[in-house]
Amino acid sequence: MKNPLLSPASLEVNELLLLPEYVLLADGPQRDHAVVVAHGKFVAVGLADDILARYTHLAPLALPGKLLMPGFLDAHHHLTQSFGKALAFGEPSEIYRRIWVPLENCLDEKLVYLSAKLAALEALRGGFTTVCDAGTRAAGDASAIAAATQEAGVRCVLGLICNDLADDIDARARAAIVVRAQQHLARWDGHALVHPSLAISVPEAGSDGMLQTAAALCADAGAVFQTHANEHLASVERSIVRRKLRPIEHLHYAGALGPQTLIAHATLVTPSELNLLAHTGAAVSYNPVASSWKGNAVAPALQMAALGIRFGLGTDGTRSDAFRLVDAAETAQRFAFGLASGDSSCGGGELWLDRALRGGADALRLNALSGEIAAGKAADFLLVDLDVPEMRPSWDLTWELVRLANRSQIDAVFVAGKLRLWQGWPTDWDARAFLREVDDIAREVVAQAPIQRVHVAPSLQPLTQTPLPTVE
C-alpha cells in the first residue's frame, strides 16, 4: 500500500522519524524498526515502539512497502571519463592509452566540472551515495570535481594523481608534486562531503620514493592511497620486465602497501601477492563489470574474503547502477570459480551486499561515517520500493536485493540527511537542462580528442589515430 503523504516535501524537513516496512541493518533486513534523521546523521535506530516513545515531538512518516537501506559506495570511479564511457565498448584492454588519456587531456576546468557532475548524477540515480574518484589526468587541482560532486550532492573520495616518472621530471618537480599532495590533503581535511585521497595511476608511473611518500602521507592523514595494479597482462609484464617484480610486489618493495592502500582491480594475482594484501591490510576494489567489459581476468574475490582481505565493489566508471553491480559481483565469481568447484552459494547474497556497503566504507576508510544504518553515522541512505512484481513473493530479501532489485525501485536518495534525488531526479536543480548542455559539449570534445578506437562498428567513422603514451 502506498503512502499518499509521501512526497519530496514530506522528506525535506530538518528532522525525520521514518517507519519503513524494512530497515537493512548490519545483521540483515529488520521489520518493525524506526529511524530518526537529524542534522545530517542517524540519531536513533531501533525498535519502532521504543523510538516512537522517545521522540514524541516528531510526527512519524509511515513507509509501507519501502526498504530503508544504506547508500551504496562505489570504491573505484573515474568521474572525468563520463563523456566517453560508451566509446570503450568492444575495446581490448588498456583502453586508457587510446581513449581515456586523449580524452582527459582535452578537458579544461569547465569540462572537468560538467563531466564530473554528469557522473555524480548517474551515481546517485544508481543508488551510490559515495564515489571514489581515482584522479583525473586533466589539468587543475581537482577543485572542479569537488564543486561538481557537491552540487550534485554525492559524497566523494577525491583522488589527486602524483605520478612522477615523466621524461621531464627532476628533483624540483618531484618536490612540487609532494607539496601539491600535502595541500590537497589539507584543503579537504574535515570537509562534509569531500574526502581527500592521493593516487599514482599504476605502480610503474611512480618512483619508489613517490610511491612510499604518497602512501605515507595518506597513512598520516587517515586518507586512502589509490593505484591500479594487476589489472591487465600487459601491465603485469611491463612491471616484470622493468622492475623484475609484479605490480603488487613492487608496491610492497617500495613500502606502499598498508591499510591506507586501495588497489583497483587486482585481477591477476598470485598466491604470494594475495598473502601480501592480507598481511599488510591493503584493500581492493573488486570491479566485476570492468573485468567483463575490458579485463583479462576476474579478481578472486571469494578467496580474498576467505583470506580476510578487505574489499569493496567499484564500477570503474562502467555503469553506475549499484544493484546491477552487486549482481555482477556474485555472477562473475560464479562463472569464474563457483561452477568449476560446485560452489552453489558463491558467498550468498549477504557477502555481496555487505561488500557493496560496509566493505566499501572500510576500503575507503569511511567506516566510522558510512556503510550502515546506525546511530551517529552520516544519513546516507536510500528508500527502495519493494511493492513491485520483481520482489513478490519475498522469501529472502537479501538475496532478492542482489539478484532481482533494480535502480527503478529507488524512490529517494539521501546524502548527509538531505534529499538529493526523488524518483531518479534532483529536486533542487534542473538536471534535464543540464543533460541538454552536456550533449552538445560532449560531442565537440570527443570529436576533437585524438581518440583511437580499435573496434569500430560499420556505421561509425574511425577517429583520429595518434601515438600512444606509455603509462597510464
UniProtKB/TrEMBL annotation:
It comes from the Bacteria. Transmembrane segments: none annotated. The keyword Hydrolase applies. Keywords: Hydrolase. GO terms for molecular function: hydrolase activity, acting on carbon-nitrogen (but not peptide) bonds. InterPro entries: Amidohydro-rel (IPR006680), Metal-dep_hydrolase_composite (IPR011059), Metal_Hydrolase (IPR032466), MTA/SAH_deaminase (IPR050287). Pfam families: Amidohydro_1 (PF01979). Gene3D superfamilies: Metal-dependent hydrolases, Urease, subunit C, domain 1. Belongs to the metallo-dependent hydrolases superfamily. ATZ/TRZ family. This is Hydroxydechloroatrazine ethylaminohydrolase.
